[in-house]
Design goal:
By secondary structure, this protein is an all-alpha fold. It contains 13 helices and no strands. The chain has a domain of 209 residues.
Length: 334
Amino acid sequence: MRFFTYHMLVFWFLVFAWGSADAQNPFDLQHRLDADTVVEHILEDEVEEQEIEIDSQAVPDPDTMLLEREVEIPVEEDLAPHVEDTLTPLDIEEIEEEEILEEQDEEVKDVRDKITKPDEMKDRSNLLLLIFLLVSIVLAFVIAIERSVMDKIYRSIANENFLNYFLREQKGAVTVQLLFLYFIFLVNAGLFLLLFLEKIVQWDVDVKLWQTVVFVAGVYLARYLCFEYLKLFAHARKELNRFYFTIYIFNIFIGLVLLPLNAFAAFAPEPLSIAALYFSLAFFILMYLFRQLRGLFIGSKFLIANQFHFFIYLCTVEIAPLLILGRYFVSVSS
């Protein structure tokens, strides 16, 4: 009886334990939420995220964050190997030796220029001083022979009638005094041209004084030959002689005025030298215009009857040399 009762208790205990195990799923977690509550939580989270994205303007957009991050990344150096890395030590030594030799050559050239330039400037100053002394001696010699020649030149510039009287006094020829004075004009005109090219135009070509003097002499020699040619067929020999003598006297007067101005331009400080050159240029232009006006008065009675000949003379003798000279300087400077 006891044995039966014991087995019955064990049986009912197992049945009760098995039933309770079937009533509860072992894989069903009790702490999980229901489906409705999970959906509600998800919707609330999305609404909060949208509100944060709308209200918080300080939070940048992911695309802009990427761009800013790319901009802020420092640019790396060129990954290509440098030239110095590809050179061998022997090549580097050769390059360094060449650079050292070039620097030494430049230093030697600078020292040589510093040594030679003062010597050249000194020699040139001595040469100019010698030229001014010779010109002054020639001028003093002319004045000592005939003191009135300077007064006659000045009065011929101011008065056309006195110029005609002075021409008759020469008896169709030019005296020795006027020849020496014209030589002074050629030297001073050449010196003015030389200083003007160096200090105003700043011409790089090495020009000598004798070259500019020969150039000025060649221009007026060509003019003289042109006048002699016109005398062969023109019926105005007397007027041509008067005009040529006018040019002669005007040039002598220009040469006398250029003598002190050239001295200032050659030996004075730079500002005074430049001012003297500009003043000389202005004076030369004024005298040229005044001389051309005097020439028009001399040949006024031939202008109406011989307009073609006057036009030919104006183009070939007066305008053409200026155009050729300007063209020459422009071509050389360019």
